[in-house]
Design brief:
Elements (H helix, E strand, L loop, with lengths): L1 H19 L14 H41 L3 E5 L5 E4 L1 H7 L17 H12 L4 E9 L8 E11 L8 E8 L1 H38 L4 H32 L7 E4 H18 L3 E5 L6 E4 L1 H18 L5 E9 L2 E8 L30 H11 L3 E7 L3 E9 L2
Parallel strand pairs: 7-9
Antiparallel strand pairs: 1-2, 1-5, 3-4, 4-5, 6-8, 9-10, 10-12, 11-12
Helix pairs in contact: 1-2, 5-6, 6-9, 7-8, 8-9
The chain binds adenosine-5'-diphosphate.
Amino acid sequence: MAGMARPMAKVSASVKRFITSDYKLESVLPKEGWRESEDLISAFNRLTLELSAYHAFHLSQIVEERAKAEALVETIPDGVLLVDDRGRLIYSNKVALKMLGIPKPDTSIALPGSVSREAFQVVLKDILTSQEDFLKAEVAVPHPDETYAIVRNFRVISRRFPLATLKAPGRVLIIRDVTVEKEIESARETFFHMITHDMRVPLTSIHGYASLLARFVSASPEADKCLRAILRSSVRLKGMIEDILNTIKLERGALKLRLDTVDAGVLCAQVFEIHEPLAALKSIKFSAVPPPSKIEFQGDSLLLERIITNLVGNALKFTPRGGVVTVHCRQEPGEVVFFIEDTGPGIPEDKQKEIFAKYTQLEEHKYLGFGLGLAMCRMAVELHKGRIWVQSSEGKGSKFIFSIPTK
Ligand code: ADP
C-alpha cells in the first residue's frame, strides 16, 4: 500500500501548498511508488504547471488593465471617486482627494463624513441618500481662510453602477472645477446686459419717429407698407430686448411683479393680433379662441404678455407652412390656465423638462434663437406662483400649458 498511500499523501499536501501559495509553483513532485502513482504525480505536475502559468498570465493582465485605468483617471483634471452602497470609498484619484480635503485614502473612509469641506458634505449627503440613477449638483466652496472673498465652483455628476460583490449599486462621482467657466458666463452676461440695455434708447427713438412719420406719409401706400414693417420689427426687437433683461433680472431675483387686474381673454387676443400677419405669411391657420365668460385675475400684464408672446412665437416659428396654431385660456378651480397649441414637429419626451432651462435647444433647432425664451417663461410663471409644462408627441405637435393661481 505504501506504493500508493505515500505518493497520494504527498500529492494532497502539495495541492494545499499550491493553493495557499496563491497558485505559485515552487517545485515539482518527484515520481515515486507504483506505476499508477508515478502517472498520477506526473499528471499533477503538468496540471499545476499549467494552472500556475494561466494564473500568472491573468494576474499580469489584471495589473496591466488597472495600470491603464489608473493612468487615465490620474491624468484627467476632474476628481473621480467610486463608492459602495454605504458611501465607503472604493477608489479615488488624487484630484478628488484634494478637492474634498481627504488627507489619505484608506478602506475605512466613508463619504460624506470624511470630507473636510462643509459645502461638499451637504451635497454628497444628498447624492448618497438619493435613489436616482443620475444626479447633477453645483457646489460653491469658500476659501478656507474666510478673510479672502474667493469662492471656487464645482459641478458634481453622479451615476449609479452595479457592483458584482454587493446587492445594492455603488456610485461613480465626477467632480469638475467650473470656476473659470462660471466667471466667463458671468462676464458674458454682464456684457450682454450692458449692450441690450443700451440698445433700448435708440430703438425707442426709431419706433417713436417711425410712428410719427406714419402720420405724415399715410397717403402713399408703398411708404405706408414700409413704415408698418419698420414698426412691426421694432416692436419685436423691443420685446426680445425686454426678454433678455427680464431673464437676467428674474435670475438675480431682482424682478418684482407689477400686479394689476388682467383679463385673460383680452391678453390672448392682443398677442393674437400682433402675430396674425406673421401667421398669414406662413399660411398657418392661427386663432385665439375667446373664453365662454370673462376671466379676470391679478397678474403682471406686461410679463404675462411676454410669456404668451414667446410661446406663440415659438409655435409659429417651429410649425411648418399650412399648420395650425391655437391660443386659448380657461378658468379652473383656483387658477386660470393658458394653452398654446401647434401642429409642429413636437418635442421628445426626454427633452420636455430640459427645454425650460437656459440655452437649451433641440439639436435640430440650434442657432434658430437664443434658447432663453422658455427659461424666461418658466421663471416669470413661477414668480406668479404658477406652473408651466408641455405635452407633446413627436411629429404631431406640442401643447404648452401654464397656470396662474387666482387666489
Ligand atoms: P429659442 O426658441 O430661442 O431657441 P426657447 O427657450 O424659446 O429658445 O426654446 C427652446 C427650444 O425648445 C427651442 O430651440 C426648440 O428646440 C424647442 N421648442 C420650443 N417651442 C417649441 C415648439 N412649439 N415646437 C417644437 N420645439 C419647440
